[in-house]
Input
Amino acid sequence: MVDPKTVLQNLEELRALTADEQGAQRLAWSPIWLKARAWFEERLKSLPVEHHYDAAGNRWITLPGKSDKALVIGSHLDSVPNGGWLDGCLGVLAGLEVLTSLANEYNGKAPCTVRLVDWADEEGARFGRSLFGSSAFAGTHTVNADRVRTDRDGTTLEVALRNCGIDVERIGGASREQKNIAAYLELHIEQGPILERRGLPLGVVEGTKGVERHVLTFTGQEAHAGATPMNVRRDALAAAAKLALQIRAIAKKHPDAVSTAGSLKTFPGIATAIVGRCEMTLDQRDLDPHVLTTMLREAREASERFAAEEGCTVDWSRLWGIEPVAFDPHLLELCEQSVKEIAGASHRLPAGALHDAAEVARAGIPSVMMFVQSVRGISHNKIEDTREEHLELAVAAFDRLASKTIDWILAIPSKP
Ligand SMILES: [Zn+2]
Output
């Protein structure tokens, strides 16, 4: 049996050790993150487990089982600067409690192998490379492009890794850890308002949304703000502003889609000149790849229409993207049963944020995530919080999901 109070105590202890008045400071590859990892290692001492770091700095803890087939539970100990006390570490510490309870229940040898992973640098807060460790594991890493990334002080990713004992050339070796993994589970705070609005403590994550991220440049004509009549202006901001409103209507046609114009820069950007050039970022997300394609096409068409209306042109350039990842249908079912048994009601929702589970699923491993409600839907902020009784329900439901998944793994016929 898991003891949810132990998880809460550990979360509090980690917070006391790694947060200041501004929030959690477990920035990946920093001394405080290493301190969090050393603290975590202390928690492993009394367990009958093997543990090591892989080539990308992910820590793997293995409880041996009668079957080599492995259930993996994971999340991340790193945080954004001034982050919350639950993002990532809830999943790791709940996983530790599940592992501990299985070790006790089965006297050190579970029915199948059970592994816990603490992914390295999920947040990408320092170098702008999210899901670093899990993408190395999945074989989707982009190390040649990423090695020269620098932080605010000009330190490269390559050097920061070396200081933590990791050789950037070898991170692909992390994919060796994929051997025998039969399923992956991750518990995480929702970081959004949907479960709270529905009055539900827990939810089942259907998958992670795909992202299309672009920068658009509208070009018109800089001209004098006083001497140029309204009907002859070629105002690049006017075209961008129309689009910034239109992308909301485009997204609202689909229940879970989101679309954001997060940055607008005007040139020359002074009070006395019409805007000749306007750069705008667009970030669109949905779980359904067809919806994502449709939203992108509609935004493109609208941008060209508004540019023409304002006597401007528009150019698009893609900043970044990731395809949507749907979680395993059978694990979704087990997750839903577990949530209903512990909390009464459940709800399926897509994750809008990135998560390591998406990389694991991209590696072809059946995966699912469970969400627990976030107070006011706030995260990446020191006021991030979840009610204590909801955290306890989450640990209990996640433990149940782990047991159901072990039964499922053992029932899968072994490949010849
Ligand atoms: Zn997280």
